[in-house]
Write a structure and sequence with these properties.
- The protein is α/β, with parallel strands linked by helices.
- The chain has 15 helices and 15 strands.
- The strands form 3 sheets. Strands 1, 2, 3, 4, 5, 6, 13, 14 and 15 form a 9-stranded mixed sheet that branches. It has a 4-stranded antiparallel sheet with strand order 9-11-7-12. A two-stranded antiparallel sheet has the order 8-10.
- The protein is elongated and about 80 Å long.
């Protein structure tokens, strides 16, 4: 039972050709002709091994290998194949290709599976086309966490809404049909390249993700008054001064909370951005990561920000508006997501049997697995990224031999989890 690495390389290199920026990385945004070309390639490869292929009401692409018990919940494996602008060839795609190769090996070796196995290929994980807060859309739809209003509110730089883009792509969104019934999925496993250098720095071949942080995103608008730079200091309503005080306040609040939370103001826009004028308007973007569940039971971050804002308004006379950029309907940051300890133990055992070194990781970036973990036992297998761990960039690189080892772990994990013997242990 062996992975065909040449076939894996062909898949990745072929998918990399479906890009809007040839010669400058992979640009394959959701619901574009590049997305469609990649999808057609995946469909053709799924059909070659006899998978039942279909698409749901949110453009998730599936390939199903039937199980001995067709009514049993499915083992779901896969990732996303969309990219950022000028991204790399491995991010997301590695997981889709890995899932495809696993089922090729199952077919070639006549491996019986009690539980049905499905590949999922998602095309809206990055959220790059429609902006911050619109990512992991496919998995949100799958678990019933996608909000209908986002279809119309989320727009790309050309003013095209997500709903319009999907319709032009060939889908009429149907969130109810995209939502999987409770109990219909037994487990979800996503293989991904590490978006960082930890595995490579520690000379480890496999990373097993333990948990993901919760995420909170906020927008803060500061409305002052436009005045020339000659205006007396005591009559100014300087939006940038107010924004600066808020930046420091965010830092102070998060430090006072202590361990288990990180965050910062990472983006600031100013208008007019000129040395000749007192800034009339500023907008800040805040991102917070929560690693400890207890933090959310002890702190209401939105209210903490509001207290500081009220004090800054009083001091600067600048009007300030705070809003949440929420993806799942939480008023506070989302809680941390925990991976299945049982499945990680299975993967550790497989690493030992194959002679692969592994380590447990806490992951700070967002993935579809983070969303799925709310719904079903979920796991994420990482393979090392080279070149300092850079991803979302044309220089993104994972050695194919490293990727093969990750696919091996996925293959043997799926084989064990999909067997009737495993069922009897539950």
């Amino acid at each position: 039972m062996k992975i065909n690495l040449d076939r894996v390389i062909k898949d990745i290199e072929t998918l990399a050709t479906f890009t809007a920026t040839p010669g400058n990385g992979v640009t394959r945004l959701s619901y574009t002709k590049e997305d469609r070309a990649a999808r057609e390639y995946l469909i053709s490869e799924m059909k070659k091994i006899g998978l039942k292929v279909w698409e749901d009401g949110f453009s998730n692409l599936f390939g199903r290998r039937e199980g001995k018990n067709p009514e049993a919940p499915v083992i779901l494996i896969g990732s996303h194949y969309d990219s950022v602008t000028n991204g790399g060839a491995f991010d997301g795609v590695a997981g889709v290709v890995a899932a495809l190769e696993v089922l090729r090996v199952f077919e070639e070796n006549n491996i019986e599976n009690y539980y049905p196995i499905e590949i999922i290929a998602m095309n809206a994980e990055e959220g790059h086309r429609f902006g911050v807060g619109t990512g992991v859309a496919n998995s949100r739809a799958l678990i019933g966490r996608f909000v209908e209003e986002e279809l119309d509110l989320a727009k790309d730089k050309n003013g095209i809404s997500k709903r319009q883009a999907m319709i032009e792509y060939g889908f009429t969104p149907d969130l109810e049909s995209a939502k999987r019934p409770e109990g219909s999925i037994k487990t979800f496993i996503e293989l991904h390249v590490e978006q960082g250098p930890i595995l490579d720095n520690n000379k480890k071949e496999i990373g097993l993700v333990e948990d993901f942080p919760g995420i909170g995103r906020y927008k803060v608008k500061f409305q002052g008054e436009l005045k020339a730079t000659t205006a007396p200091m005591d009559i100014r309503k300087d939006a940038l001064v107010a924004a600066s005080k808020f930046v420091l306040a965010v830092n102070k609040i998060l430090k006072e909370i202590g361990g288990g939370i990180t965050g910062n103001v990472g983006e600031l826009t100013i208008s007019p951005n000129s040395h000749q004028f007192v800034p009339e308007f500023a907008e800040a973007s805040v991102e917070v990561r929560v690693f400890d569940d207890k933090v959310l039971s002890e702190v209401n971050l939105y209210e903490e920000f509001k207290k500081e804002i009220e004090a800054i308004e009083e001091e600067t006379k600048v009007k300030i508006e705070l809003s949440e950029v929420a993806r799942r309907g939480y008023s506070n940051p989302t809680p941390p997501s925990h991976m299945s300890a049982k499945n990680n133990e299975i993967a550790k055992k497989i690493c030992d049997e194959l002679g692969y070194s592994c380590m447990v990781l806490k992951e700070g970036t967002g993935h579809d697995a983070m969303m799925m973990s709310e719904f079903i036992p979920t796991n994420m297998i990482f393979v090392p990224s080279k070149r300092g761990g850079i991803t979302h960039h044309p220089d993104e690189w994972t050695e194919y031999e490293d990727l093969k080892k990750g696919i091996d772990v996925l293959l043997y994990s799926v084989k064990e989890l999909s067997s009737s013997e495993e069922m009897q242990q539950d």
